[in-house]
Amino acid sequence: MIKLNSATTVLFLMLLTSACTQSLTHEKSQDREVVAVTLRATGDLGVIIERATSQVQIVNHSSNSMLSEIDGLGDLSHASIVYSRDQRFAYVFARDGGLTKIDMLKDKIAKRIIQSGNSIGGAISQDGKLIAVSNYTPGGVKVFNSDTLALVATIDSSVLSAKPRNEDGTPVRSKVVGLVDAPGQKFVFSLFDSNEIWIADFSQAEMQLTKFENIGLAPYDGLISPDGRYYIAGFFGEDGLALLDLWHIEKGVRRILANYGKGDKKLPVYKMPHLEGWAMAGDYAFLPAVGKHSVLVVDTKTWLQVAEIPAHSQPIFVMAQPDNRQIWVNFAFPDNNTIQVFNTETFELVKTLTPGPAVLHMEFTPRGENVWISVRDSNEVHVYDTATQTLIDKLSVKSPSGIFFTNRAHQIGL
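^ thats the sequence. predicted structure below, dont judge the formating
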């Protein structure tokens, strides 16, 4: 046993007392820090794209307030966003090939890369670990680790052998559009120039590709049903739509709605409607007619059109409230100052609203009591009560376009 003299004993007791005091002081300091920090949950947050200034606003839809503004995000034309499954991080897909990960708790960019020359949207995998981006230039899809944004896989799209090579000698490849996530750790997308739909399966150690050729001319956009079963591509080059049943891919791609598109147009088409703007409510899909002043109603059991609802102008987005009772429709230029609301049971017009010039996008709060509407040329976002269709709040936002709330983190295809 070690024997201590009296001086050493005194010194030891002093050191022990000091250590205990420091420990208590540190614990108290930690307590004060916890009290001092204002906790922020992320379930009622969202991001609004400010395209003209390459910025985004982080907002709260419980208090209808803006929390912070983040800049340095590049070309945000047609920008879109997906969220991490814990709703902390937003991944912004910019048109200039930029992929930015935003930390919504710290109000700052966590990571940003330029992954291509020209991109158009992206998706997050079922398990939240992979981020996929579809590219115009150089074509194909790139897949990244959602934590680090390190490259996981490059999926080259089909070579367009009839076209001269790029200046650097590489072959020209098909643009990729309509990229969505699907159950089973899959991504589904369309190839605009080579008329294909591909499925990339990341459920195994080695990624597997399934290809469907000659699905129709120039697929320009795609959507997946809310249950993740059906993938639908629209055509820029001909009428009709391509339908792929992901429960039965052995049946291949089939054509539906043969008259959907430009075939019987009587009006100039100001803008091809977004397929992501389709609404599915009950047994019906509500989709914007191309070049016509109407919303088409399709029975999702037969994929046959059953009704046509007259509308104010050419629709762009047809969005269903979360309770599916009503659809909200916005329109193409020059009638893009208007919103119309329709009943999904009777197909009757409920109300016509005129929020202001250039109504670009709508986003419902998770349970649908409010809808946020971007009015770009007024530099405002309007908040409406969906039960009464009355304006209840306005926020000043610079040239707002897309609005994306974090509840998208738990929805297939969003």
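The two ends are 69 Å apart (CA to CA).
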